[in-house]
Design goal:
single chain; about 150 residues; alpha+beta; 3-stranded antiparallel sheet; disordered C terminus
């Protein structure tokens, strides 16, 4: 099962959740504000995609931290401590695809969930996309009879 981690009122998380729902992709939502940051998951994220990818240095939470705290975030250990104390500092959404490396962020311009510096997303093997300027088709190799087509028929 895909798990989306984030904060429900975050605009980027809202867009990512809408993107998944529009494609009928089932997922579970983990609210950092209500359920906290799962420490075991955070430890995996700190390893891959890495602490630097997780720390949101552009948000208001980062700017509100005192300078000494910001300057102390220099490695996975120091980032872990600050991220657990301030869940809003985690770049959102974090998506656990059920296997492989989680992804961080949502590329709103292209409507895709994947690390913003990647050229091609590492899609889970149960979701494949065929995309052109006119259509998007979602195919499930697990159930070859399932597909979703959006746009003008080719």
């Amino acid at each position: 099962m895909i798990t989306v981690y984030g904060i429900p009122n975050c605009d980027t998380v809202k867009r990512a959740r809408t993107w998944l729902a529009d494609r009928d992709i089932a997922y579970r939502f983990h609210d950092f504000k209500k359920a906290g940051v799962p420490e075991a998951s955070l430890d995996r994220w700190l390893a891959t995609p890495g602490w630097d990818a997780l720390v949101n240095r552009r948000g208001t939470t980062w700017r509100r931290l005192d300078e000494a705290t910001r300057d102390a975030v220099v490695d996975a250990g120091s980032a872990r401590k600050v991220l657990l104390a301030n869940p809003s500092l985690i770049k959102r959404p974090v998506v656990d695809w059920g296997h492989g490396a989680p992804t961080v962020g949502f590329d709103a311009a292209n409507g895709r969930l994947f690390p913003l510096d990647a050229t091609e997303p590492d899609w889970p093997d149960h979701i494949q996309f065929i995309r052109s300027e006119e259509f998007i088709m979602t195919i499930s190799p697990v159930d070859p009879l399932f597909f979703r087509f959006r746009g003008r028929s080719p």
